[in-house]
């Protein structure tokens, strides 16, 4: 497990590698603006805690140095693997610690984390005169809803990254295989994947996905589940849907892509988000249903062997294109109630999620949550995946946000993995998942 800490001093980022981690090189940019005074005393440093995914390049390399230059406050950004991040958050928030100033918040964490976080709209009211251009209305309602704590009816995070899953495909390769349009249904996708795998001669496969039993495997399966008409469970009633025919059929089809049809690279069992990007850049697959923002490093990174070759559309539906449904997810930033640096923590959140840095974040692989960025004609022209992403978000479904989802996701990871490895049928895998979910519901009183 690695833990990386980034600290900005005098506008310059340094990294303290606390445990073994990958080396990184940073380019810095800073934007100056007049300093503002606050009633609260200025802290020497703010502590931000988040996961170790690479999409925060603009924050760490550019926005933090600009914030430090503007306000004279160091910012320490500690990045942890997702499970370790959640463990630390639970320990510190539930223990009443005031050491963390800003938290990276996932939509699936709102259920349990929400009571410990500040009300975003109240924070906005208090600083409206200082940030008149912040514009809370610039965030789509469906994206803001991800961070609505339903029990308390208040928003607890400001969206920064808005993710949905789209079909990435190399148009030229499809045409060489005699396929004139991207697949719109599961059968069309399988046919294309078989042809593309044959065309790749053991080097390039038809489809890439994340099959490691880790943080990415569930999200990469869910577009297939939703597009087959399947569902997970009802947090209100406790009804479980993964044993219904639609869910079983979706998992069987998805698992067979690797275990039976072998149109997915066998080493995909070691892939998560970083690996699917790296292998796409190395031309290991011709298509992938993966995160919208992956399009930028795939198609624009000069070191990518496939740069300039990708096109995008919505994910296929099981039998018709109208069945297409994807995942509505992402990340936000939040201010804990117990931080002793509340005003400056909120200043930092507004800084990194504001219009300027949201736009800049496109350069380094983020999928901004602001409508003004995604609808900008220049952005659409430069980043060709934006229209497919916008279309996908119209029917995208968010993951459950009740406190049990974290445990349920762990069980679902195992079930998906077993089906993809051919260790069990989809039916048996889903029955095992449902059985584990029922036990959790009984133990927690959800059922």
Mean pLDDT: 90
Question: Which segments are poorly predicted (pLDDT under 50) over 5 or more consecutive residues?
Answer: 15-37
- Structural Rg: 22 Å
Strand content: 15-25%
- Count of strand segments: 14
User: How many helices does DSSP assign?
Assistant: 18
Q: What is the helix content?
A: 25-40%
Query: What is the general shape?
Result: globular
SSE-based structural type: alpha/beta
Structure in words:
The chain is an alpha/beta fold. Helices cover 39% and strands 16% of the residues. It contains 18 helices and 14 strands. A hairpin with a 2-residue loop joins strand 1 and strand 2. Helix 8 packs across helix 9, helix 9 packs across helix 17 and helix 17 packs antiparallel against helix 18. It is globular, with a radius of gyration of 22 Å. The relative contact order is 0.16.
Outline of the structure:
Helix content is 39%, strand content 16%. It is α/β, with parallel strands linked by helices and 447 residues long. The strands form three sheets. Strands 1, 2, 3, 4, 5, 8, 13 and 14 form an eight-stranded mixed beta sheet that branches. A four-stranded mixed beta sheet has the order 10-11-9-12. A two-stranded antiparallel sheet has the order 6-7.
Secondary-structure map:
Blueprint: E1 4-9, E2 12-17, E3 45-51, H1 57-71, E4 74-80, H2 82-94, E5 102-106, H3 110-113, H4 120-126, H5 141-144, E6 148-149, E7 154-155, E8 158-163, E9 165-170, H6 171-176, H7 186-200, E10 205-208, H8 217-227, H9 245-259, H10 273-281, E11 285-291, H11 295-300, E12 310-313, E13 327-334, H12 342-353, H13 355-360, H14 371-374, H15 377-382, H16 386-393, E14 397-398, H17 405-420, H18 426-444
Parallel strand pairs: 3-4, 3-5, 10-11, 13-14
Antiparallel strand pairs: 1-2, 1-4, 5-13, 6-7, 8-13, 9-11, 9-12
């Amino acid at each position: 497990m690695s833990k990386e800490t980034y600290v900005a001093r005098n506008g310059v980022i340094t990294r303290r590698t606390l445990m073994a981690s990958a080396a990184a090189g940073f380019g810095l940019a800073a934007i100056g603006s007049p300093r503002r005074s606050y009633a609260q005393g200025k802290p020497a440093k703010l502590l931000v805690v988040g996961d170790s995914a690479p999409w925060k390049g603009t924050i760490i390399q550019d926005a933090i140095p600009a914030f430090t230059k503007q306000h004279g406050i160091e910012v320490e950004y500690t990045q942890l693997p997702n499970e370790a991040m959640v463990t630390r958050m639970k320990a510190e928030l539930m223990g009443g610690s005031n050491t963390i100033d800003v938290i990276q918040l996932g939509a699936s964490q709102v259920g349990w984390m929400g009571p410990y976080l500040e009300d975003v709209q109240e924070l906005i009211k208090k600083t409206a005169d200082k940030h008149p251009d912040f514009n809370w209305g610039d965030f789509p309602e469906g994206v803001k809803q991800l961070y609505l704590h339903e029990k308390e009816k208040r928003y607890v995070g400001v969206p920064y990254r808005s993710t949905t899953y789209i079909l990435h495909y190399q148009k030229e390769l499809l045409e060489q295989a005699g396929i004139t349009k991207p697949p719109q249904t599961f059968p069309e996708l399988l046919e294309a994947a078989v042809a593309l795998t044959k065309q790749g001669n053991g080097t390039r496969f038809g489809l890439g996905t994340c099959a490691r039993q880790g943080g990415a495997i569930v999200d990469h399966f869910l577009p297939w589940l939703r597009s087959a008409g399947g569902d997970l469970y009802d947090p209100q009633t406790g009804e479980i849907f993964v044993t219904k025919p639609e869910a079983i059929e979706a998992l069987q089809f998805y698992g067979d892509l690797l275990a039976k049809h072998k149109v997915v690279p066998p080493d995909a069992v070691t892939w998560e988000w970083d690996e699917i990007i790296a292998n796409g850049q190395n031309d290991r697959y011709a298509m992938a249903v993966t995160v919208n923002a992956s399009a930028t490093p795939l198609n624009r990174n000069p070191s990518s062997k496939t740069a300039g070759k990708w096109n995008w559309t919505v994910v296929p539906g099981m039998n018709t294109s109208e069945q297409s449904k994807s995942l509505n997810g992402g990340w936000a930033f939040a201010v804990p109630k117990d931080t002793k640096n509340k005003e400056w923590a909120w200043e930092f959140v507004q800084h990194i999620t504001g219009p300027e840095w949201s736009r800049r974040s496109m350069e380094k692989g983020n999928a901004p949550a602001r409508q003004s960025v995604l609808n900008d004609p220049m952005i659409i022209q430069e980043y060709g995946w934006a229209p497919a992403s916008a279309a996908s978000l119209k029917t995208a479904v968010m993951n459950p946000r009740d406190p049990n989802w974290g445990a349920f996701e762990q069980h679902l990871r195992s079930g998906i993995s077993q089906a993809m490895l051919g260790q069990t049928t989809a039916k048996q895998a889903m029955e095992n998942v449902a059985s584990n979910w029922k036990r959790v519901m009984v133990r927690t009183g959800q059922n």
